Amino acid sequence: MRINLLSSFAAGILIATTICGVVYFTDDNTNQKASAKSSEGVKLTAAQMKEELESAGYVVQTTEELEKTLQAAKDIETKPADKKEKDQPITQVVVNVADGMTSIDVANVLLQAKLIPDAFKFTQDIEARGLQNALRPGSYTVNSGMSYDQIIATIFTN
Question: How many angstroms separate the Cα of 127 from the Cα of each of 84, 133, 145?
Fold first, then answer.
């Protein structure tokens, strides 16, 4: 009885596959043919294509317009930062480096003084520049008006 059940199942699968194959290969594909004909016969100009895309909600820009937009965004990003620096008072910090201190310790001091945004990136930058052994004991004065490179040059001397 079990062999009958298995052979009936196999016969059902075979019949279903045959029916699907016949339907697939005998379909006339009227929808695909109609869309292929419509796309072949219509030639749009650049202005018409731009108009169609804009009416669908897309923003269409030329390369020059994109360059101008990107430059304007860069200008906006830099201007507020300049104004922030001028509006804020300059904070002066004395960093005391003792024997045995590492760049991680200095980075933590500078982070607490809010002179650098990230202590881990600072230490990675020191290692990338090869200055991890250039740290000498002493007192170093840095301020918030100094650039990132100036802070490094002041504390880490070769």
Answer: 30, 9, 24
Beta bridge partners, 94, equal 141
Q: Are 119 and 104 in contact (CB under 8 A)?
A: yes
Tokens of 45: 């100009």
Query: Could you give the CA distance from residue 86 to residue 92 in angstroms, rounded to a whole number?
Result: 15
Strand-pairing partners, residue 143, are: 92
55's tokens: 């009416």
pLDDT, one tens digit for every residue, the chain (158 residues): 567 888 888 899 999 999 999 988 887 765 565 555 555 667 888 888 888 888 988 878 788 888 888 888 887 766 655 455 556 777 888 888 888 888 899 999 989 988 888 889 999 998 888 888 888 888 888 888 888 888 888 888 74
pTM for the model stands at 0.44
Q: 97 pairs with which residues across the strands?
A: 138
